[in-house]
Amino acid sequence: MKIIDGGVTAPKGFLAAGIRAGIKPGSEKKDMAMIYSEQPAVLAGTFTRNIVKAAPVKWDQKLVKEQEAIRAVVVNTGIANACTGTEGYENTQEEAALAAGLLNLKQEEIAIGSTGVIGQQLPMDIIKEGIHQLVPKIAHDRQSSRDAAEAILTTDTKSKEAAVSVEIDGKEVIIGGICKGSGMIHPNMGTMLGYIATDAAIDKELLQELQKEIVEDTFNMISVDGDTSTNDTVLVMANAMSGCKKIQEKDRDYEAFREGLLYVNRELAKQIAGDGEGCTKLFEVHVEGADTKENARILSKSVVTSSLTKAAIYGKDANWGRILCALGYSGVNFDPEKVDIAFESAVGTIDIVKDGIAADYSEEEATKILSEEKVTAKIHVHNGEEEATAWGCDLTHDYVSINADYRS
Amino acid sequence: MKIIDGGVTAPKGFLAAGIRAGIKPGSEKKDMAMIYSEQPAVLAGTFTRNIVKAAPVKWDQKLVKEQEAIRAVVVNTGIANACTGTEGYENTQEEAALAAGLLNLKQEEIAIGSTGVIGQQLPMDIIKEGIHQLVPKIAHDRQSSRDAAEAILTTDTKSKEAAVSVEIDGKEVIIGGICKGSGMIHPNMGTMLGYIATDAAIDKELLQELQKEIVEDTFNMISVDGDTSTNDTVLVMANAMSGCKKIQEKDRDYEAFREGLLYVNRELAKQIAGDGEGCTKLFEVHVEGADTKENARILSKSVVTSSLTKAAIYGKDANWGRILCALGYSGVNFDPEKVDIAFESAVGTIDIVKDGIAADYSEEEATKILSEEKVTAKIHVHNGEEEATAWGCDLTHDYVSINADYRS
């Protein structure tokens, strides 16, 4: 596996564009994106578990279920098209129909993504004008992925892209993607949109099963604020244009592809976690020694979601009591008197807790380690062999500022 | 039932005191309290469900289980005596032994409460000196309850007291209490300590059963930040000194007592919710039309705990999408297209959502309603007959400031 510079246009045959349509008045930000595949791309998708689902989520779920392959995705920010009733769903269908007409495709070959304010109808005149602008702009180059990655952001501060190359059957296969996160990022997927493209050839059912499994250890292990959204979507599109042999079973080729797809999902997820609203650092929580994989996940997510722990990480405060406390209310059974905790960052590692009580450590040294941009809490519960990692960020003054009046 | 001005010294035979022992250097705040009953008081208690339990919680749980009655409680703030191992538990026992010696009681007649930083040992010299100071100060007057209520606070901004008088068997029975909350307040009880005293005569098992039931609808329905603590404790002490008939079964007397005890628990819980760290308003969430009582509780707690909703309430922003979203990820099944939402405060009520989509309302009017000190979200899910209320507060810049460096 080789990490490469690129995004959703890295694999063969994928084009993209990002433009400003003007959905949110007074902003200069790009707000609509399109991804296009020259050949039909087998589609897999994972979606929010929130029972309140936005119109585009319902549409994309239908495509994943009923369509073998699709050709394009249209995404807008500013308005989520959630809680918008029949009118909202009809607007999503209208978007797909318009893009299909312009691209000479069928309506069912166009996936739709929306993110932004819940409860408002899309300004369809602006959206339609945006689609008209997008179609002639799509291109298979580095910049076009950057434009698309920028266009799907909301309160994110950084664009998010990742790409790798893997060898399958002697041929190079590329996997690349873009995503947006920020606000409402949580286990079970927050307000996040992710679009991953690959020129691999793979069986649709196998791709769906694989992506579902990967999401559990990547996008479902990140948390910004504990809220899960109405619009979360990760789509994976595989258009076979690498010319490699079709992956049909869990063989060596599948394993090579799996490694690449896992990497892209995990990198995108970590970029989201480290770019939570107002956040100043990526907070990683690694739990070892759990009795089951699921319990390892629950424990690490409970710590990474704790507001008190996140505020302490912001304050560079080695307040391990809050970590033990968050483990304790997770619902998972363990012996608090067997827990070890260490903090780790680029400048070193420090043991903070041994057997459930404070180790003899220097607060000054701990603060130094907690001052880095990426901080890891390493927790051992000595209750078994399973482990899991969760990613989140610190809780800051800016988080409150951003969310106190998001709609204005 | 008559609401009266008073706290834990309102019932006959209860004395209290609050003093500054000096546990946290550089502070002028009172930090130790004592409550004392002239006659043995039947003891009931509810405790944190966190599996990491502080030493005083383990001690008090033992008393509730093994003792028919106790005589006094000693409380300190500054250090929680949690995650302190054998030394911590021995310190708790030593506190009880010292207070017992000075009061001419048995060690097992003294309950202990601690709240503050996790993971540090109590400064026993200061604690012991504090107990010596407390004993001669205890008094049965209004001010002594105020002193005790003040002494148990941590980052709370206001003292919390409540009292009522009820008539049982023709005699006046008083129920009064004090509590502290702030930070880590959540369903399943946050870092909160509550001490309720009554001069009623009641069977111990009946009191325990009643208090357990009441806590579900009061202290377990408040949330400040979703974290639950290692130290949460509510004790109820009944010393029979009103001279009323002993309550032995669920008769009319029991109902009168139940009403009073529920009121005191609920008032104290609401005072905690409205005084969360950095909070500017009490946020009440009332859910109607749930299929089960438990689901009504889960739905209302999910909304009151949502960071995004709480930040919107702080910003006086009628962002009902976040409320629908929080209902949607609660895990409770309902039809999002049947949900109605209204906001209510002292200045009026406004319908915001009808059948899952935006009602035709004035944002200006909504902001006016959301600007009051107490704001209620009234939610109807049209799925049954059950209802529940949860209390919380808004999420503010000051919450982050307080928790970024609590230990310094």
UniProtKB/TrEMBL annotation, chains A, B:
Reactions that this protein is recorded to catalyse: N(2)-acetyl-L-ornithine + L-glutamate = N-acetyl-L-glutamate + L-ornithine; L-glutamate + acetyl-CoA = N-acetyl-L-glutamate + CoA + H(+)
Residues that hold substrate according to the record: 154, 180, 191, 277, 403, 408
InterPro entries: Arg_biosynth_ArgJ, ArgJ-like_dom_sf, ArgJ_beta_C
EC number(s) recorded for this UniProt protein: 2.3.1.35, 2.3.1.1
Annotated site location: Involved in the stabilization of negative charge on the oxyanion by the formation of the oxyanion hole: 115-116
GO terms for biological process, alphabetical: L-arginine biosynthetic process; ornithine biosynthetic process
Gene Ontology, cellular component aspect: cytoplasm
Entry keyword Lyase: no
Record-annotated active site: 191
Molecular-function GO terms, alphabetical: L-glutamate N-acetyltransferase activity; L-glutamate N-acetyltransferase activity, acting on acetyl-L-ornithine as donor
Locations listed in the record: Cytoplasm
Protein's pathway: Amino-acid biosynthesis; L-arginine biosynthesis; N(2)-acetyl-L-ornithine from L-glutamate: step 1/4; Amino-acid biosynthesis; L-arginine biosynthesis; L-ornithine and N-acetyl-L-glutamate from L-glutamate and N(2)-acetyl-L-ornithine (cyclic): step 1/1
Quaternary structure note: Heterotetramer of two alpha and two beta chains.
Biological role: Catalyzes two activities which are involved in the cyclic version of arginine biosynthesis: the synthesis of N-acetylglutamate from glutamate and acetyl-CoA as the acetyl donor, and of ornithine by transacetylation between N(2)-acetylornithine and glutamate.
Protein family (similarity comment): Belongs to the ArgJ family.
Protein name: Arginine biosynthesis bifunctional protein ArgJ
Organism: Anaerostipes butyraticus
Annotated gene: argJ
